[in-house]
């Protein structure tokens, strides 16, 4: 099978990305909540940041949460796909994904606190 290149590949990749965002929005309450927070924080970041660097840090930190949540949701889907039995490694993988989301939230709180104080 021939691999797509150029604009066709870009169009298809964009479609896959939008499908992933739609899947996260429809199936993950945490993603919806984090998206709503990001939608509120990003304009506030532009308003509250004093420099371009501050604005970029404030605006990008909630996006980091969304990225990590998407990866965590993908990880959970793969783990769930492999079986319904409780396995210590499956639990460990899911717990680590959750911990990654938690760390990204800590990063966002830290960035906002340090810049705004």
UniProtKB/TrEMBL annotation:
It is a multi-pass membrane protein. It comes from Desulfobacter hydrogenophilus. The chain crosses the membrane at residues 99-116. Gene3D superfamilies: 1.10.287.3610. This is Diacylglycerol kinase. It is found in: Cell inner membrane. Substrate binds at residues 9, 30-34, 69, 98. It catalyses: a 1,2-diacyl-sn-glycerol + ATP = a 1,2-diacyl-sn-glycero-3-phosphate + ADP + H(+). The active site is at 69 (proton acceptor).
